[in-house]
Specification:
Blueprint lengths: L7 E6 L6 H14 L3 E6 L13 H12 L5 E3 L16
Parallel strand pairs: 1-2, 2-3
Length: about 90
């Protein structure tokens, strides 16, 4: 177990498309909590809204570019690779 007690932030959404406000929100939460890492999880599809417009792989790529300026942020394909709608609790 690491001795680092700082939290890990998990930020999910469809990010269709990811935009400046998404990045600002994550930066703000990261700074407020002094997070050790931020994990960005683009959804395959929002279970309440249906299709997101752009395909999941494209939104994953866009999110990777959008969140790249945040040093501790990592964009993961956990939900986009599932190929089915999922809820945060499942992730």
């Amino acid at each position: 177990m690491s001795g680092d007690a700082r939290p890990v932030v998990v930020f999910g959404g469809t990010f269709a498309p990811p935009h400046r406000r998404h990045v600002e929100v994550l930066r703000g939460v990261d700074a407020l909590l002094k997070a050790r890492q931020s994990i960005v999880v683009p959804a395959w599809r929002n279970p309440q809204r249906g299709e997101a417009g752009a395909p999941p792989a494209d939104r994953l790529a866009m999110a990777t570019l959008a969140f790249a300026p945040i040093a501790d942020a990592v964009v993961v394909p956990w939900e986009t690779e599932r190929g089915a709608p999922c809820y945060s609790i499942d992730t």
